[in-house]
Design a protein that fits this description.
The chain contains five helices and no strands. It is an all-alpha fold. Helix 1 packs antiparallel against helix 3, helix 1 packs parallel to helix 5 and helix 3 packs antiparallel against helix 5.
């Protein structure tokens, strides 16, 4: 009974991470799309035509992208925690023919996680082209060892 409850809870958490990653991708793609209208200014080096409102919008996008990047760290930690026990079981029970990874193989959360990372990297690259620098490390919610929280 406890095993079934634990599996239901793990499945719920796994689905929640998947939902959060999917929502992050949609938001990231929307922000990237909003920056595409500035491609001509970038190509023809006419960034002087940007308004103060444009620049403020870029800063808001950058700040939100940093928050999303931070969230991705937590989603990665959650995914590792959720899969860790099954990987350990699989490694120690080599004689079993059971496939403990069915739930994960049928899911696209791992692909979408990397898709979100790549989308964020492209977003930061586009912001760099618009002369919007990333925040300083001291402004980010990251500990000196590279981890967070």
């Amino acid at each position: 009974m406890y095993f079934d409850e634990a599996n239901k809870h793990r499945e719920f958490e796994f689905n929640q991470v998947q939902k959060n990653v999917d929502e992050l991708i949609v938001e990231c793609e929307g922000m990237y799309s909003s920056l595409l209208k500035y491609n001509d200014l970038i190509t023809y080096e006419e960034l002087y035509e940007l308004t103060d409102e444009d620049k403020e919008n870029f800063i808001k996008i950058r700040d939100r992208a940093h928050e999303m990047e931070h969230s991705l760290l937590h989603y990665k930690e959650d995914l590792i925690r959720l899969v860790e026990g099954d990987v350990e079981w699989f490694l120690t029970d080599v004689e079993s023919n059971d496939n403990y990874f069915d739930d994960y193989q049928k899911s696209n959360v791992f692909f979408n996680y990397f898709r979100a990372e790549i989308s964020l990297a492209l977003l930061f690259d586009k912001l760099k082209q618009l002369n919007v620098p990333r925040k300083n490390v001291s402004e980010l919610h990251v500990h000196s060892g590279g981890g967070c929280c």
